[in-house]
Amino acid sequence: MKVTEYFEKAKGRTLVSFEVLPPLKGGSMKAIFDTLDPLMEFKPPFIDVTYHREEFVYNMRPSGYYEKTAIRKRPGTVGICAAIMHRYGVDAVPHLICGGFTREDTENALIDLNFLNINNVLALRGDARKFEGKFIPEEGGHEYALELVRQIADMNRGKYLDDNIENGEKTDFCIGIAGYPEKHFEAPNMETDLAHTKAKIAAGANYIVTQMFFNTQAYFDYVDLCRKEGIDVPIVPGLKPITKAYQLSSIPRNFFVDIPTELVREMSAAKTDAAKKQVGVEWCIAQSKALKAAGVPCIHYYMMGDAESARKIAEAIF
Questions:
Q1: d(Cα 309, Cα 243) in Å, to the nearest integer?
Q2: In angstroms, rounded to a whole number, what is the distance separating the alpha carbons of residues 63 and 98?
Q3: Residue 43 resides in a domain
Q4: Can you name the residues that pair with 124 across neighbouring β-strands?
Q5: How many domains does the chain have?
Q6: What is the domain extent for residue 153?
Q7: How remote is the C-alpha of 181 from its chain's centroid?
Q8: What is the predicted pLDDT for the residue at 131?
Q9: Alpha-carbon distance 108 to 96, whole Å?
Q10: DSSP H or E run through 59
Q11: Tens of pLDDT along 68-118?
Q12: Looking at the domain assignment, is residue 31 inside a domain?
């Protein structure tokens, strides 16, 4: 079933979804199952699985020169999605990114997903490589998420890259995209950011999942701005509890979001690691209660492998 169909079927009831990371190369599905098993009692209709582009490492050769090697540290997104659907009977939402993919790679990935009866995708540009100052697309790949959305929408109409394909099978992907309550860090202002979002909706995107935020009012303001711009698709809030002191600096640095002064003060005042974690969990619970009271279609939790915190939050809300 499509993500948007779950929202329609819920008839105003707030759903819950979780996002998992593929294990590091050499890991097993057990880590994913151990994370998700305790959360299935909350009946998430779908689980997101992230995708990570390749990274480069430099290995010294006997000659003394360094050899540049591309590796993918967290492979397996498509296989993990299939395993989740088989084990739990819930839908999986693989993330598709521009980085590291040619258009043909994207098309082949979508064909595989279609064969597996996976009909939901989250279309993202993805991040720049760590050593690059800005995002650089793969040669023959997409530079922007808008282009990725258009390719998926084309396949939904039976249009493939090879113009010689006639009467190609029409896929039926429900397309999610990212939204930014505090605007995308590369956008000069919110107006420009919303214009990009509106273009992706016009191209065929069906719903929005937001970047994490810690000021709940920022989400409500963002939704209001979207509606004023004529963006009327479901907007799913994405939440993550801050559970460690170092995240007060790492999360703003990596995700370009603000952390409210009150949360920083409470985290800083907590004396132990356990106390700091409890502060973050309670803050996320308070956010979740406010969002559920407002009737959001779904609350999406970025777990980052922390199933324990996700369970505590879900127990208090669902």
A1: 8
A2: 36
A3: yes
A4: 97
A5: 1
A6: 3-240
A7: 14
A8: 67
A9: 12
A10: strand 55-60
A11: 555 556 678 999 999 999 999 999 999 999 988 999 999 999 999 999 999
A12: yes
